Amino acid sequence: MPIKAGSATSNITPPLGTAIPGGFRPRYAQNVDDELFAKALVIENDSTRIALVTCDLIAVTQKMVDVAKQRIADRCDILPEHVMVNATHTHTAVAVADLLGVDEDNEYTDWVPLKIADAVELALLRLVPARVGFASVSEDRITFNRRWHMKDGTVRMNPGIEHPDLVQPTGPIDPELAMIYVESEDNTPISAVANFSLHYIGTDNGSALSADYFGHFDRLMQHYLGETCVSLLWNAASGQINNIDFSGQTKWTAGGHAQAVKMANVLAGHFITEMQFMEMHETLQLSGKIDTLNFARKRITDADLEVAKKVLSVETGTYDGYETGPFSWVVGQPIPQSLVDIYALECQRLAKLPEQMSAPVQVLRLGEASIVALPGEVFVETGLNIKSKSDAKPLFLVSLANGYIGYICTDEALTQQGGYETWAAMSSLPDVGTAPAMELLVASLLD
């Protein structure tokens, strides 16, 4: 089955003044460091089309994705189970959901699915006979686990470089960089896809819109391969993985965009090297499946709601008188006084949601390679577990895909370690048992 492929972009930059998520308090866009895009790659054989769309957003919600997929089905004749839409997780984009102290920008989320679908339709118009190659290498020098055991017995996120109370990280990293390269019959680059576990890096100005290092990777690959190449950088299981070595052993000399460019260059350098050795396939079996992950959201008790009411009845940052918690779902490190009002609001939000929830889990196959698309910020241990049980060559594990249920923590993190990622919020919905259930569901889809 000879294949065809096409790629395209669609500009999804919001207007200035929009709220920017990714922190505990609202920020508002005052400038644009670089434009945000939905970037699409469509691959077709004689009977099947697959569309892969990566958005320069902190997340994509299932509501947004479902609207985009229906439009893609109507206009492009691509089945919803054959379309993956994911977010990079840049923290300098736009509020696509109620996330901590930032409310959803409803005008934007009504509009952006149309632009996501446009990227696919434009890529479809550019289909040409093509070849596809795959590769995988290890890069263990630029990522670090941001959750640390402390001497007081707690687990803390981003505890500070060379903090005197550091003991050890709570877990590993995933150093795999998996790659897909697509070119036309005449060797014109069509797309470069990379999959790596790195939460995000950051920019120089939190009030300027930017695609972060994910955007720098795309521009660097265009610099190396030409403007025809649309590059997608997928975030792998990286819920607690960042670019800061808190042990102090690795000392970066740059930050912000300069650091983002450096790290993007590391990945781009690997890609350019591995391209030279890829076996390029002119035929590929293509398929896709989606199933539903059912999970319990974190439980909000009546006592939690009473505390939340008290917190919100006093001036921000003045609620005091607790040494643990103050909510039932807090394990270990208490919520800082300066943030307790944020989590009081989150308690109220979660209490309005069904106790049992669901989200999509997807598997796409491209020959011997597989793509596993998961709907949140997956802890690295879960990603490694999924990879260890698969014979895909390679397996691309894509977080923040087709929907968003927040941090998908390990059971150990939820019941024993605690810390920021485990705190109940719209950005951390799943309760104990979700990660193991998701691993089983993925295994059944890969079988």
Radius of gyration (CA) equals 21 Å
Contiguous low-pLDDT stretches (5 residues minimum) are: none
For the biggest β-sheet, the strand order reads 7-6-5-1-8-13-14-16
Largest sheet: 8 strands, mixed
Mean pLDDT: 96
Total of DSSP H or I helical runs spanning 4+ residues: 9
Number of strands: 23
Q: Helix/strand-derived class?
A: alpha+beta
Oligomer: single chain
Helix content: 25-40%
Shape from CA axes? globular
Keywords:
alpha+beta, four-stranded mixed beta sheet, 9 helices, 447 residues, eight-stranded mixed beta sheet
Spell out the blueprint of helices and strands.
Layout: E1 4-11, E2 19-20, E3 27-28, E4 31-32, E5 37-44, E6 49-55, H1 62-76, E7 83-87, H2 106-125, E8 128-138, E9 144-145, E10 147-150, E11 155-157, E12 166-169, E13 176-184, E14 189-196, E15 208-209, H3 212-225, E16 230-235, E17 241-242, H4 256-275, E18 286-296, H5 302-312, H6 340-351, E19 356-366, E20 369-373, E21 377-378, H7 380-388, E22 395-398, E23 407-408, H8 411-417, H9 434-446
Notes on the structure:
- The chain is an alpha+beta fold.
- The protein has 9 helices and 23 strands.
- A hairpin with a 2-residue loop joins strand 19 and strand 20.
- It is globular, with a radius of gyration of 21 Å.
- The mean pLDDT is 96.
Compact description:
It contains nine helices and 23 strands. The protein has helices at residues 62-76, 106-125, 212-225, 256-275, 302-312, 340-351, 380-388, 411-417, 434-446; strands at residues 4-11, 19-20, 27-28, 31-32, 37-44, 49-55, 83-87, 128-138, 144-145, 147-150, 155-157, 166-169, 176-184, 189-196, 208-209, 230-235, 241-242, 286-296, 356-366, 369-373, 377-378, 395-398, 407-408.
